[in-house]
Each structure stands twice: as structure tokens, then as C-alpha cells.
Amino acid sequence: MKITVAQLNYHIGNFKGNTAKMLDAVQRAKEDGADIVCFSELATCGYPPRDFLEFDDFICLGEESIAALAEAAQGIAIVVGSVSHNPVPEGKDLYNSVYFLEDGKIKFIQHKSLLPTYDIFDEYRYFEPAHEWGIVEYKGKKIALTVCEDIWNIGNENPLYKICPLDNMMKYEPDFILNVSASPFDTDHAESRINIVKANCDRYKIPMIYVNHVGAQTEVLFDGGSLIASGDGTIHDELPYFEECIKTYELADIESATTENFQKKDKIALIHDGIIMGIKDYFGKLGFTKAILGLSGGIDSAVTIALAARALGAENVHALLMPSQYSSDHSIDDAVALAENLGCPYDIIPIKGIYDAFMDQLAPKFGDLPFNVTEENIQARARGVLNMAMSNKFGNILLNTSNKSEMAVGYGTLYGDMCGGLSVIGDVYKSDVFRLAEYINKDGEVIPMNTITKPPSAELRPNQKDSDSLPDYDILDEILYQYIERTQDPQDIIAMGYDAKLVKRILRLVNINEFKRYQTAPVLRVSSKAFGMGRRMPIVGKYLS
Amino acid sequence: MKITVAQLNYHIGNFKGNTAKMLDAVQRAKEDGADIVCFSELATCGYPPRDFLEFDDFICLGEESIAALAEAAQGIAIVVGSVSHNPVPEGKDLYNSVYFLEDGKIKFIQHKSLLPTYDIFDEYRYFEPAHEWGIVEYKGKKIALTVCEDIWNIGNENPLYKICPLDNMMKYEPDFILNVSASPFDTDHAESRINIVKANCDRYKIPMIYVNHVGAQTEVLFDGGSLIASGDGTIHDELPYFEECIKTYELADIESATTENFQKKDKIALIHDGIIMGIKDYFGKLGFTKAILGLSGGIDSAVTIALAARALGAENVHALLMPSQYSSDHSIDDAVALAENLGCPYDIIPIKGIYDAFMDQLAPKFGDLPFNVTEENIQARARGVLNMAMSNKFGNILLNTSNKSEMAVGYGTLYGDMCGGLSVIGDVYKSDVFRLAEYINKDGEVIPMNTITKPPSAELRPNQKDSDSLPDYDILDEILYQYIERTQDPQDIIAMGYDAKLVKRILRLVNINEFKRYQTAPVLRVSSKAFGMGRRMPIVGKYLS
Predict the structure, then answer these.
(1) Residue B410 half-sphere exposure, CB side, CA atoms within 13 Å?
(2) pLDDT, tens only, B334-364
(3) Among A375, B147, B441, B529, which residue is least crowded by beta carbons within 10 Å?
(4) What is the pLDDT of residue A328?
(5) CB–CB of B491 and A57 under 8 A?
């Protein structure tokens, strides 16, 4: 039996495009002589469809996609994830299902049992969990069909759940397991996926084929990395990260596999490749080709433009250099050198005249009040307006250049440098931004060394440095990581050896700046806990604040 | 038996403040000779605590509050909602529970069974549902304790759920039901609450006491309106809306009640009062007293400032009039008249010099390209920067003045008029904004008649009117309502008699402007479907777009 694994990039709500792409893959699978072609979770509508699921019309379009795919299931079986209706009035209206299509018809449907409802996931908001389990028989083989999370509760040891769907399917003695997934990227996730697939094979002693999404849906990145494993857990193949791939396997080869075939998992390289895919898909799926961003000479905008140039082509990324009276000469030189290294078009627009025009109007109100964060913010906001004006006039999207460390502690100006349609490195701590810069430079200097080595500064007042108001980024980032990714309590972080006053100050800064992050662009998610839809905090709260 | 109902305003994460407030109420109940005092759902930590629940320390603080309340439960029993631990490894770690405290101890805990996971609710993200039900006996009475949603599945007819907790409790023959709630306001909700309480009484033939939260937690408003109902569903009392209230009842009086006692439920009056509470609590709980906003002479900012003045005191609401070359004289006159009617301080800051400074810098890039939305946005953004500069310098919060109709179709400038810490009328359609203006004027002209009667205009180019680019608000709002609140499909809305092209155009505008709403301030929620946490839409989607 030959099985084609189709790791594809879908687009939420684009039923026509997604279906056409799958029909092409069916054709390709037929040419490969495949008996089955397998797509991923909710492949018809894309993942996550979110509240689009509340529209009957949206559900109907999914049914039409399934009908079109069923029609193509002639001489080949198609396994594909899509929504299905709950036929009884009790419980939520919808199931998240995997369909087995054969002979022009829907032959079998298995619903998803384990509905992730944590971090970015809201599946219990929409779906009823499965309460029945079966298998499908095809060409003499018995196949267990599962959806994503269903394989993540091995032997019922995941405390989030109380059911192990595969345990319930085993009484039918399946020959192998197909899993259709939409399992998002983070830098540790490929490793976890391999471990979970191995552990399932180890428990059930049958092969597993795991088909993941690839591509970005706004902030959520899917890395692909689909897996083909033998009954003893040997990883016969791992599909590439961050790109589409269609590949056909002989089941007998999978069953008898003895050598493993993994890709390298370097954290910084994964972040680099993931962000590039994220930018590319954000623009491509919205129908835009050109970006704009402010280039300060600092490392954040340098890394952002380098990644954007690799994603969109240097000629499509326009840099604005907007020096103020507090900008140092080297900042402008470094920014120009970078734009020229990359081959990005750039313009220099000084903001002093604009700043002065604001201050002229405000002078009667401000009187003798001292220069403070207000004037710093006016500079950042003047730049925001200029960026947006160029974006509006020339139809490109402004990229936000904030890093995760500064977003965490609120070290940024709302409606100023926090503007932008997409936050490129908002899930990358400052210390990893430096590592990304070195990685970008690994085959030759793209980002000027001076940008990497000089002390970080917002340059909004004379001789300002980040270290005037923030601790060293190494320490800051470690404390933030413990609090944000690992949800450690303040007393636990202090027990790790950090200064108690510092820990409390930082955690307080994180919590009182929730209002700023609420109004920030979607952040490309590369860690297990990014700001945005996966981290939901009260604004008006009084906890650690 | 005497029962005290304590309808209080909690603050998320403020365990100390919430506990102190409850201890005061316990004292007051004792003075009233009460046998029981009843608080509401998750009263210790406030509702909704969101991802604060992921911190062990946060859960511990709740346990400490329960311990402090238990200590005060001497000569009186206390019923209060708080988090509890799931003692077994299977299932989520936490329960959403109601505690019965007596004789210095926790006497009984009942967990919540029905976990709302829709609209603004994410309870399944955090909590395990109850699988066991009991009752508590106290002074010869048997009491069924329930948490909020647990009374909303009468006879298992709510399709969202498969369990009816009260049906399971009835075998113990309780004498009455206590329900601790955190049931958010919308203009229809008080009516629904009364109906559900009546329907429960009708089914079980015993009295019910329903204790709700009151107060605002950022965008979510709780109106109170706690209910005391006899066994035949007579509403013996309904506590006031939008204010705290502590009141003691004799159970025998509840049982024998024959007359009903409701408050008026006028939609516009409820919105008016709800928004005022929302502003007051947003500022109060963040520790701010002063607001600023841009006053254009139009109806949106007029209604916003009138509501803010009533919430915070006119002297605490600073108006900025920022005319451009396109502002009409009457706009400035109307805005001045309004500020003076209200007694709000105001300043006039023309933006022409600032606009010209931007255009001077951009001229070499823009060349001969025609005036378009870019230049309109520069005006709106110049105002945004001025508003924020005054906010930063003088430590007040900028109020956003966008209405729901324009937020829906993206008729607003991101980082311009869409700036602000709180969206005051972002859940009020334009046609209701007019009704609110009339309601505000009911005891005398506050908002100048000219502001109400003149055709709406953004005044960003000569002779601009909203009706140049949008249909009449009456039609627009009805189509938006069907799409947003009622999640009707385009074909259903067209079938209601609206022009097909218009419907498709409007729905497309709603969907392609998701990126703008993603970066907007939290919106005070007054309808059953507000923009924000209760409506979760993909940005990069291709559905109706």
C-alpha cells in the first residue's frame, strides 16, 4: 500500500484555494501510484478558523469542499480534516473531524476527542469532543484515524484529559495510525512531536503517519515537519520545516524502517526560518508585496529589515531613516550601511521640524514643565506618523520592530515605535535578537558590526542608554522567561538567586503594561508563550502590580 | 432564617481589597441578624481572572482569602465563590467553586458544572467541570449551592451542555437554591436573568437567591440586578443595577412573596448607566482620576465627553479642540458650547502648522500624487499625538470616541482617532449614539442641538460627509447588527430585503478591517457581541473578503 503525505500551506477561509491545492495533490498522488493521500487538520478551512465557525455559511463551504474532494476520490482514498455537524441537539453543534473519502463518497468520519483549550487554542469554544471511536478498513488494512491532540494523551497520562482515544481504537486491531494535525511551531516543538510519535508507536507497536500544516496564519506559524514512523518508533522520515512537501511512501518500507532521518534543530536557525515564513505568508495571504519600516541604526530594526528582505526581496522593503536632534551620527551611518548592504531602498526624513511644530503648539500648555517621557514619545510618534503616511501613500505594510523584552516591560511608545501591521521579532528576547543578528551575518557581514556591538539606546534624549532604566538584558530576559514562558511565581524566581527587588520591579512592569500590549500588532509566535492570543491577561488587575 | 445578599464590586487580583470588603459585609450582615451572607462567583479574586489563574501564587492568595473569611464565619455562615484545587491528577488543575463557610471552617464545597466557553468566556481553559453534586445542611435547612451558568441548563434543554446540575441535586430535596454569579451586562441580560430564575423556580418549586457581581473589569461590565425569588417564581426583589447593595431578607418572606418588584429596563438608559460605571471603574481601579479627549463638534466625542463628565466629574475631563483647515466654524462653536455646558476645561490647538510640517518633509516623496486618505490620516494622527502628549504630560487617560458602526467598517484612523486607553462607545451603533445624545439631553440641553442634527462628517477634506462613503446609518447599523450580534450569513441578510451588493460590501469591510480592531482599545461591552475578547476573528483570512 502506497501512502502520499501532503504537507500543505492553507489559507483560513479560502475554501476555493485550499480545495484546488488539495485536488492538485490528489492528482500528484495518483501519478505516484498512491492508494491513500493524507492532508491535515481542518485543511478545508485552514487553522485556526476562530469565530468564522459561528457562521453556518462557513460550515457549508467546508461541506462543499469535502464533496469536491470526495468526487476526486476515485481510485484513491483521501484523508482530510474538516468540520462536521453534530446531528443531535445535545452538546456543541460542531465536531473537528477527519474524513475518509473513497469511491466518490464519505466512507468514514472520526471526530476529535481531545480539544486543546489553552495558550492559542480555543477548541472547546466551538467543538463537541468525540464520544465514539472506530476504525476504517481499506484494501485489507485497518486504519486508526486521529486528529492532532488525540495522540498527545498516551495511556491517559496527560493531566489535561481523561480519555485516550487510541486506547479505545486498539480493540479493532488497526494496522497503522494516521494523524492529521495543525500543530504550531515553537523552537522546542519539533522535538516534542518526535517524542510523542515515538511514544505512541512504542505503546501500540504499529506505524504512525503524522501530517502537519505548514505556513503562517497571521501570528501562528506551522512548521510542517510531518513524520513517518515504523511500529517500533523508528522515524523513517521527517518532512522539511517551513515549506510545502508532497511525498509518497510504501507502507512496507515504513514498517521495516531501521534508519532514522532527522533535520537539525538549532533554535536560532528555526526562529530565523520561521519568521521569514511568517512575513512571507502575512503579506502573501493579504495580497501585499511591499513593506516599510523605520531604521534606527539599532539592532532591532536591523534584524527586522534583514529578515523582511529575505522574505519579500530587498527591493520590496523600504527603509525610513528618521533622525532627531538626539540621533548620533553613527546611527545614521549604520542604518545607511545596512540598507545598502541589503539593497533596500531608503529615505532620510529628519523629524526635527515636525517635533518643533508639535512643541510650538504645546508650549503654552507645557510652560516650564521639564522635558520628560512626553517629549520622547512625541519623537517616536512623529516617526510613527511618517511611517504610516508612506505606508498609506504607497500601499505597503509597516513592520513593527519591537522585541519581546521591551514589549514585556513596556519600554516602547504606543502609537510610536509600537506601530505596525505585524510584529516581526515581538516574540524574540533581546539576547536572542543579538544571536539572530550573528546568524544573519554568518556568511558575511550584512548587519554592521557597530550595530551589534554598541550599547542599545532609544536615542530619545541626550546620551540615553537602555541600561539607564533597565537591568542587563541577560538578567532581564532570564527573569522574563521564567515569568512568561514558565509562569513561575515571584518567590520561585527569587529563589533561583535573582534580586528580590529587581524581580518584583520587573514583574510589576510586565503586569502594568498589559494596556500597551493590548493595542500592539499581532506577534509572530516562535516560543511556547508569545504575547497575543495565547496569553490573556486582565488590564485592570491588581496582581503583582 | 435570615439571608444577606451582598452585591459587591470586586477588583481582579486585589485579594486584600476584595476580602476586606467582604469582611465589612459580614459585619453588616451580623448587625442585621443574618444567618447567612452570600457573595458572588470568584469573589475573592474578581472575575474574569484570565491567565492569572496559571500562577500558583495567585491560587494561594485565593486560599488565604477563604481562610480569612472562614475565620469570620462565627455565628454566621458565609457563601462565597473562589477557586479550588482538583485533588486528582486527571483533568484540569482547578475548579470554579462555591464555598460554604461555618464555625471557622470550610464546611462544604460545590464545584461549577457548566463552564461557559463562548463570547468573552474561557472557563474551560482553566477549570475542570464538577462531576459530583451535593447539598449543605444548615440550621435545619437544606441548601443547593450553584455557580452562575449552572442554573442556565434547565431540564438539559440548553444545547451547549449535557448535564443539569440542579436535577442532580434534587434527590436531596433542598429547601432553597443559592446561586453565586458573575453574569455580565448587556441590554437584554437583566430580562434573561429574570426569566431563567423564574424558570428554575417553576421547575423545582423552591426559592432561589441569585447574587451577581456589580462593577466593571476593563471591558466587561457587571450590572448586579441580583434576584430574590419565591418557590413559585415570584420575584420578591431585584437589587439595583450598576451599584453595590447589601440587603437582608427573611426566608419566610421570600417563600410567601406574592408581589413582584422590578426595575425599568430601558435600553438607552441602561447603556448610559452602564458606560458611566465602566468609565468610573476603569479609572478608579487603575488609580487615575483625570481623562482627556479630542472634541470635534461631532456627536461621538460629544456623547463620550458627556458620559465621562458624569462618571469622573466635569472638572476631571479635559477637552482638546484641534481644528484643521477643513474644520467648519460650527464645529468649533459646537465643541466650545458643549465644554462650557458641561463645565469641562478645554484647550484649542490648531493642527495646521503640524500638518504642514509633516507635508513639508513628505513633499519630496509624495511629489504630485493626489491628496487622498494619506493626508486625511495625517490630520487624525497629528491629533492623536497631541492628545497623547497632553495625556503623558499631565498623567490622564485618553478616551477613545469611536462608535461601533465606524469601528465595524474601518471608518477611522489607526493611531489617529482610534487612539485611547478605553473605548467608551465602541459597542454603541451610530444610530444609538444619537439616542444616547437625546437621553443625555432629556433634562435640558447639554449637547448642542446642532451637533445632533447636522450630517455626520469626519471633516478631513472639504465638504466631506460620512454619507459620501457609507450608506445611511439606519441601514448600515441594521446590517451590522444582523452580521455581528446575530451571526447571520450574507444570504440570510439579503433575504431580509437588503441590497445584495450593499450587504456584500459591508460584510467585506467588516472582515478586512479586523487588523484595525486588533489594535484598538478595550471596548466597554453593552451588547451581546462587542468587539474585543468576545469576538475572535482571523486577520489573515479570506472569508467574505
Answers:
(1) 15
(2) 999 999 999 999 999 999 999 999 999 999 9
(3) B441
(4) 87
(5) yes
Question: ipTM of the predicted structure?
Answer: 0.97
pLDDT digits (tens, 9 = 90+) for A115-146: 999 999 999 999 999 999 999 999 999 999 99
Through-space distance between the first and last CA atoms of chain B, rounded to whole angstroms:
61
**B357–A362: do the CB atoms touch at under 8 Å?**
no
Greatest Cα pair distance in chain A: 87
A-contacting residues in B 134-173 (Cβ below 8 Å)? 156, 159-162
User: How does pLDDT run across B84-110, given as a tens digit for each residue?
Assistant: 999 998 899 999 999 999 999 999 999
User: Mutate which of A542, A544, A545 to test chain B, going by most B C-beta atoms within 10 A?
Assistant: A542
Look up residue A68 and give its amino acid: A
Q: What is the pLDDT of residue B157?
A: 87
CA distance B409 to B412: 9
pLDDT reading at A507 higher than 90: yes
- Does this model's pTM top 0.95? yes
CA distance B19 to chain A (A): 13
d(CA A153, CA A462) in angstroms, rounded, equals: 57
What pLDDT score was predicted for residue A155? 85
CB contact at 8 A, B290 and B397: yes
Q: What are the residues whose beta carbons fall under 8 Å from the beta carbon of A160, sequence distance 6 or more?
A: A114, A118, A153, B91, B92
Out of B89, B218, B361, name the one closest to residue A386 (CB).
B361
Sheet holding B36-38, edge to edge: B105-111, B94-102, B77-85, B36-38, B2-7, B245-250
Grid cell for residue B444: 435640558
Read off the DSSP letter of residue A170. G
Task: Tell me which of A22-31, A129-138, A493-502, B323-332 is least confident.
Answer: B323-332
Backbone angles phi, psi at B384, to 5 degrees: -60, -45
User: Residue B328: which pLDDT band, with cuts at 50, 70 and 90?
Assistant: confident
Q: A346 touching B, CB under 8 A?
A: no
Whole-number pLDDT of residue A157: 87
Examine the residue annotation and report whether B54 is marked as an active-site residue of this protein: no
Interface residue B389 vs chain A (CB under 8 A): yes
Phi, psi of B108 (to 5 degrees): -160, 145
Residues of A with a known catalytic role? 41, 112, 148
Best interface-test mutation with B: which of A10, A61, A543, A544 has the largest number of B CBs within 10 A?
A543
The beta-carbon neighbor of A536 closest among B122, B390, B542 is: B122
List the catalytic residue out of B21, B38, B102, B112. B112
Give CA separation, A318 vs A125, A543, B132, in Å: 41, 42, 62
